[in-house]
Every structure is written in structure tokens, then in C-alpha cells.
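Support request, please re-run this one:
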Amino acid sequence: MLRSVRARLTLWYTAILALVLITFSGICYALLAQEIRAATDASLADTAREFAGAFANDRVNGSEGRDVLLDFHYSDRQIMVLSGEGRIVASSRSGLAPPEMVRVVSIVRQGGTGLQTVAGGSQNDGIRIMVVPIEVLGKKYFGVVAQDLAQQSDRLQRAASAVAYGIPLALIVAAAGGYLLARKSLAPVTSMSVKARQIGAETLAERIVVDNEHDELGFLATTLNDLLGRLQQAFESQRSFMADASHEMRTPMSIIQGEADVALARSDRPSNEYRESIEVIQKAAGRLTRLVQNLFLLARADAGSYPISKTRFYFDEFLSDCGRAMSSVAMVRGVALTCQAPPDLVIYGDEELLHRMFLNLVDNAVKFTPAGGRVEVRAESTANGFVIRVSDTGPGMSSADAPRIFDRFFRGDRLRSRATGNDSGAGLGLPIARWIAEAHEGTLTLESSGAGGSTFVVSLPALEGRDVPLEEGASALF
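Re-run finished. Output below.
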């Protein structure tokens, strides 16, 4: 079994070349044989016509016709004159064996003329004859020119032998050259394979050397390097993700463990201290639960297995529900929250996911807007779909933090410095919101951020699924 690509390429190359050579040689041999036979027949015909004319003239002049044979002397053929009854009148030489002469006489007696092949010959290759009728002074004769086909067969045999020896020799040379060529051509592939085997989790930064980026092997090496780059990025992202997740989980778990140890350290603590410890544990457990839920959602989103169930619903009612859900939080912080959307604006999407996206955006805006500020959610319809802006009057964010706000677990220095009662969260709200927008074939971007506040823009495509009925009470119920 040929497992080597070089061996298979060489075998296929040799097989195709053999087929081409055999076909070409067969065609050439057939054409050569046809040409040799045609040349022999033409030569016999010319000799027979010339002899017939000379013999007729000689007989008219009163000669016996035997002198003409002296002018038509050939070493490879015999010329004869037969009477109408098949009797030999004259012959240049006796080159035919008696059985062969019998066959020639039989053809003449039967009135056969033209080119004929008679069995026999020195090598049993046959005898080619040309019979022409000769009419002289009312008498009928037949001129016969006969040639042994042994010489013709020898020429064809030499040609066949040359082909029989030449093709194997050519195939051996071609196979050796093809194998060396395939080995040299595939050497970069072997080198790439060896290099790829050496690259592991700790050496993902290494790359395959590209000798010529313009040929197919260079394109393959470039593609492999791009793949390694994506793997390195994914590996580093996963490593960072695990580190950040572990860091975020460590704090609430430490709080739970610490409060439990304190509560169990003394048996004579009053009930109100136990209650305070349980409340602390409850808050830490709630934060840990939200973090695990967010991580689970992002994991399913990355795997493409999160179920998305789209329906049609009125966006103004949906936005009102979101506003009511966040109104109490905004009121506690002293922030004015307003939501505006055109009436009868119908949107098509997963209502639960969109609700979570807007809650994340509004919660983020309310959380970092000082007391006395305001948060505004405004929706409008465009030619390409829908645009929703979430604006606040908070301090904004630094230009260094703005490009990274959608990174998982990212929290800028300002966000990490927690003000009184301001929990900055785990840094997953905005990444989840962006994924929800992209899952609806839309976008979530930071339009502006500065001293006057921040504005996030959600763009959703035009209404799809027009054949889906708008059910009564389709707005969100949260």
C-alpha cells in the first residue's frame, strides 16, 4: 500500500505517461505500417505499368519480349509475363517457390488483377503482387510484379522493437525524475509538518517559515500561520477568561467563607449578628449566582448553542416595561429615567434577550450617573431598521478605557473604584449586551463618552418574519 504522497504522485505520473507513450507509439506504428504498405503498393503499381507498356512495344516490334526484362531488374522483386491460360511466357528470375507460383497462376487464371497478397515468402510474411492485363496484337497477357514482404515486416519489427525497449526506458527515467521532483516539491510540506508538531500550548507564538508566499505551498504556510494566530488568540483569551472568572468568583466566595467562619466562631452571638452575617452571605451568593449565570450564557453563546426564539411585539410597550423594571433603582439613586419610542413600532426578536440587553445598558447608565442626573432611552425607526440610544449625564470614561469596555471582565480604574453603594459588577454586562445585539444581526457601539456623559447606540435590522402573526399581549412580561 502506497502511503507516501511522493510514491503516489510518482505512480500516477508514470501511469499517465505510460498511457500517453503507448497510445502515441501505437498511433505512430499504425501510421508507419500504413505508409510502408502504401509505398510498397505504389512502387509495385508503377513498376507493373511501366513494364506492361515496355513489353507491349517490344512485342509490336516483333521481339519476344524477353529483352525487356533486362531493363527491369530488381533485387527485391520478380517480374513475370503469363499468357491468358496461365503459362509463363517470360520471367526475370525464379524467386518464387513452386507453391507460390501455383497460387499466382491460379489468381491469373481466375482473371484477378490489381494488388493481391499471396501466402508464402521467405519468412512466411506473404508475397505482394501486382497483376496488370497486357493486350498485344489481339493476344492477352498478364504482367505480374511480385515482392516478398519479409523486408517490409523487418522494418516494422525494428520499429516495434524500438518502441518496446524505448517506452520502459523512458518510463524508468521519468519515474526517477518524477520521484525526485515530487520529493523536492513536497519537502516544504515535510518541513511545515515537523514545525507544526513542535508547536504546543507554550510555543503558540512560533510560526512556520514562508519561503515563497506567492505559490501554493506558501499560501498553505500562510494559512497555517493565520490558524496558529487565531488559536493563540483564542487560547490567550480563554486563559484570560478563566483567570478573570476565578478572580471574580474568589471575592464573593471569600466573603461567604469569612462570614460563615465568623458566625460559627462563637456560640453565644445574638440573633441580630447572625442575621447580619446571613444577609452578607446572601448578597455575596446572589452576586456569585449572577456571575455564574452570565458565564454560562457567554459559554453557550460562544458554542452557538443558546436558543433564540423570535417573535413580533410592540417596542413602545416593551420599552415601557424595561423602564418600569429600572424605575425603582433609578429613584433610589436620585436619577431621572425616561424612555421614549414611537407608537406602534413593531420589532422582531427574542424578547427575553432584548429585555436583558436593555436592562444591562440602563442599569450601567443609572449606576454611574450621579444623583440629580438623568438617563434617557430613545428609539426611532430608520430606513434600514431601528436605532435605540441610551444616554446618561455621568462623568463618562477615559479615552484609554473606551476601546476596551466591551471586553469581558474589563473594568476601568474609575469603575473599579467603587463609590458608596455602587457595585461595578464583574464587567460582563456590556459584552453580553453586545452579543445579544449581534445575535439579532445588529450592533452595539459606544457613540460618545466624555464629561457630558456616555451614549450607547443599538442598531437592529428591519422587521423580519412578516408572516409571523403579532399575538395579542406580545409585549414583554417581566
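The CA atoms of residues 204 and 233 lie 9 Å apart. Residues 5-60 form the longest helix (56 residues).
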